[in-house]
UniProtKB/TrEMBL annotation:
Cellular localisation: Membrane
Entry-linked PROSITE patterns: NA_NEUROTRAN_SYMP_3 (PS50267)
InterPro entries: Na/ntran_symport (IPR000175), SNS_sf (IPR037272), YocR/YhdH-like (IPR047218)
Key words, A-Z: Membrane, Transmembrane, Transmembrane helix, Transport
Any one GO cellular component localisation term in the record: membrane
Protein name: Transporter
PANTHER family: TRANSPORTER
Transmembrane segments: 12-32, 44-68, 89-111, 141-162, 174-195, 215-238, 250-274, 311-335, 356-380, 386-403, 430-448
Organism name: Pseudoalteromonas piratica
Recorded topology in the membrane: Multi-pass membrane protein
Length: 449
């Protein structure tokens, strides 16, 4: 079954694909925005704690379920289930993750389209096409529809080509380039006036804010969103991993890469925000709240590139091209979840399933675009801050309470024979069984109270 479904050809292929799924707008756009909105360093501190203490164990649960099941999210969860009631619960959780992935992609495609539009704006400026440049960054429905459709078309094309020739090939080529450009931009930004104030805001936490309910729920949502948890993505990606791979090591590597990229993104955007502030760009309201909100990256970075003179146009072009590509490595993973379900559960040919799923999600995107003032934030919050953590928590319930312990350890031992004597096995099973579900539930209850 693995051969006919496709499989990652190497450990690097999976790590780059999983990191590509994680590293995208969730890191470059979402993390700095959430950081700036929620008190800077206090949010960073809480995010790092939740990423390693809650997101990583949940991540391990999802990829282990996927590799064991060697199938789409619903089927993999059903294979773990032993009773009819458990199988019904498995369908709800698995299908809920697929719906969550579709909802995320519906608004994600809009944001990614904006990234693409700014790349076009820079390119048009270079060749002197002023009218095209102005239209590309105009706040119009036509512009939003066009670039969202272009981005979804690219996503569909890659997924139609399958695992090895689509997902893995693109991820392995594009992720290193993204990391390299981020580091170069950070080095440049830190030499500018005002960057030191941004560094202080980013790295010096106000401890009194770490238990703020809004901050907690935002940090939890960001941690799960950036690791693509609760969307069926990591279950299906896990199903494409060879049985010979050490899952404990792979999970740790992907989590570390994801958190590192998020941290680097903040190290770029937050100081850049203060650099722009130093240059007269209004960032904060009189009460100290952030003005830009979700559009922070599109206001701050263009101002930074403008300050670089002629060179800034080319740097801006490179940055937004790579941002579009990083977004693409995330969007393909989100589309793969529902596509794999249709292919394996309903015997629909992959190219047909991919095309029609892409059209359906694009239709939802169009509805959001026509009601962007209210629906964009609503869908994003519903899917990333509530839907994802709940589905990921239920995957932990499956791994901790429904999956038989002997079967679980046998799965982990494939690729890691000595796992029973490691610290991971001494902690992770009971941690996933008790701590993760209770901690996630506690954060939700705290936020509602």
């Amino acid at each position: 079954m693995g051969a006919s479904r496709g499989e990652f050809t190497s450990r690097l292929g999976f790590i780059m694909a999983a990191a590509g799924s994680a590293v995208g707008l969730g890191n470059i756009w979402g993390f700095p925005t959430q950081t700036a909105t929620n008190g800077g360093a206090a949010f960073v501190l809480v995010y790092l704690i939740l990423a390693f203490c809650l997101a990583y164990p949940a991540f391990m649960a999802e990829i282990l379920i996927g590799r064991y099941g060697q199938a789409n999210a619903v089927t993999s969860l059903e294979k773990i289930s032993r009773t009819q009631m458990q199988k019904r619960f498995a369908f709800i959780v698995g299908f809920g993750g697929i719906v969550c992935a579709a909802l995320i992609l519906s608004f994600y495609g809009i944001l990614a389209g904006w990234m693409t539009s700014y790349a076009v704006e820079s390119g048009a400026t270079i060749i002197g096409a002023t009218s095209v440049a102005e239209w590309a960054v105009s706040d119009s429905i036509a512009r939003n529809i066009f670039f969202c459709a272009v981005f979804m078309f690219l996503t569909v094309i890659i997924i139609r080509n399958g695992v090895e020739d689509g997902i893995e090939k693109w991820s392995k080529r594009l992720m290193p380039a993204m990391i390299g450009l981020l580091i170069l931009l950070i080095i440049y930004v830190l030499t500018l006036d005002g960057a030191d104030k941004g560094l202080e805001a980013y790295l010096n936490p106000d401890i009194s804010r770490v238990l703020d309910p809004d901050l907690l729920i935002s940090a939890l949502g960001q941690a799960f969103f950036s690791l693509s948890l609760g969307t069926s993505v990591m279950v299906i990606y896990g199903s494409y991993i060879s049985k010979k791979e050490n899952m404990v090591t792979i999970g740790a590597q992907v989590t570390f890469i994801d958190v590192s990229i998020a941290f680097l993104a903040g190290l770029l955007v937050i100081p850049a925000m203060y650099v722009a502030l130093e240059q007269g760009v209004q960032i904060f309201a009189e009460d100290g709240s952030l003005l830009a909100g979700p559009t922070l990256v599109f206001q701050v970075l263009p101002s930074l590139f403008d300050s670089m003179g002629q060179l800034g146009v080319f740097v801006g072009l490179a940055f937004f091209i790579l941002m579009s590509i990083a977004a693409l490595t995330s969007s393909i993973s989100m589309l793969e979840g529902p596509v794999s379900f249709l292919v394996e559960r309903h015997n629909i040919e992959r190219k047909t399933a991919t095309t029609w799923t892409g059209i359906g999600i694009l239709a939802i995107s169009f509805v959001i675009i026509f009601n962007i003032g209210t629906m964009l934030d609503f869908v994003a919050t519903l899917a990333t801050e509530y839907g994802q953590p709940i589905i990921a928590m239920l995957c932990c319930v499956f791994a901790g309470w429904i999956w038989q312990r002997n079967s679980l350890i046998e799965e982990i031992k494939q690729g890691n024979e000595q796992v029973e004597s490691t610290l991971f096995w001494k902690i992770w099973p009971w941690y996933t069984k008790f701590v993760c579900p209770l901690a996630i539930a506690a954060v939700f209850i705290h936020s509602f109270i």
